[in-house]
Amino acid sequence: MAVRPGWQGRFYEDFAVGDVYQHPLGRTISEADNTWFSLLTMNTNQAHFNAQVGASSEFGRMLVASPLTIAIAMGQSVTDTSQNAFANLGVDELRLTAPVFVGDTIWSESIVLDRRESASRPTAGLVTIRTRTLNQDAVPVLTFRRTFYVHKQGHGDAAGLFPQAAEPLTVEGA
Fold first, then answer.
1. Per the confidence metrics, is the pTM higher than 0.85?
2. Which GO terms label this protein's molecular function in UniProt (predicted)?
């Protein structure tokens, strides 16, 4: 019997310019997601939470709040790109290229644009990616560049944080 570690994410050394990561989890956006996000962020534009206003707009329905789309897209990229990052340094060239509506499912993919050693932190490097988000019809709805600090292998490892039970998990105890 062996404990097999789960996916731990990429470290600085794992990135190569030109690598593309198609992030594994799509996300269907619900009306509740959109309404709650609008309320939590104090977004008072009724196009996001008033069906009558949405229906009378040029889109004929409510729009998903664009910061929600951005947040989901960035979150989708974490498992492949910044699981071992300790700081985002910038988001640039953000473009919202098509509207997103309740019921849309969005998927994201990222390409590594640049990587360099950190001059001030020898245990880390800087990585720049471009992320593109597509809806269920493969229409691009969002793009942005993001630069982050990421740990090098052997540094900043959170693997040891899993709590150790007094008794190991066994087949017999099922």
1. yes
2. lyase activity
DSSP classification of residue 96 = E
What are the φ/ψ torsions at residue 95 (nearest 5 degrees)? -135, 130
Q: What is the mean pLDDT of residues 150-170?
A: 79
Which domains does the chain carry?
Answer: 12-29+64-154 (3.10.129.10)
What pLDDT is attached to residue 1?
66
- pLDDT tens track for 38-84: 999 999 999 999 999 999 999 999 999 999 999 999 999 999 999 99
Q: Which residues contact 96 (CB under 8 A, 6 or more apart)?
A: 66, 69, 141, 142
Alpha-carbon distance 151 to 1, whole Å?
31
Rounded to 5°, the CA angle 160-7-167 comes to: 45
d(CA 158, CA 136): 34
Residue type, 160: G
